[in-house]
Structure formats: C-alpha cells, structure tokens
Amino acid sequence: MNDLKQKMQLIWGISIAMLLSLLFPYGWIVSLVLMAVNTYCYIRYMRCPYCQMHLPIVQRPFCPHCGKRILD
Predict the structure, then answer these.
(1) Three-class SS state of 59
(2) 48 with 68: CB under 8 angstroms?
(3) Where does the sequence pass through the membrane (predicted)?
C-alpha cells in the first residue's frame, strides 16, 4: 500500500464491517477479530510517508512531526 488515502479507506472499510457484524448473532466475535485487524492495520500503515512517524487518529493535511503535506 503506497497511498495514504488507500490506507485510510482500508481502515474505514474494516470499521464499517465491524459495525455491520454486530447485527448478526455471534457477530460480536467477528467484531472482536475485525477490531484486532483494524488496530494492526492502523499501527502498521498509518505513518508519514516522509519521516515514518505514526500519524494521529485525527487526520490533518500536514504531518505533526516533520510538517510536510501528506493529504491532498
């Protein structure tokens, strides 16, 4: 995954699937698994492409660590 927008879409997609899984019986089990996958994806992929520092949950157009523009 190269693009930050693709990474954000992946994390949002997993979050939506996690919420939808709660509509089914025993969906909480699937939701727990998806929550673990979502946490892993966030830790692994949500980094600044320039300085490789973790980005905050609230997305800003600039990296808070190096100050370079990360979102268009």
Answers:
(1) coil
(2) yes
(3) 12-37
Using the Cα atoms of residue 2, residue 66, residue 13 and residue 44 in order, give the sign of their dihedral. Answer: positive
Residue range 17-35, pLDDT digits in tens:
888 888 888 888 888 898 8
Residues 52 and 44: beta-carbon distance below 8 Å: no
Alpha-helical segments (H) within 22-72: 27-45
Residue carrying the six token digits 């966030």: 42
**Dihedral pair phi/psi, residue 43, rounded to 5°:** -65, -40
Give the list of residues 6+ apart from residue 55 with CB closer than 8 angstroms, or none: 46, 47, 48, 63, 64, 70
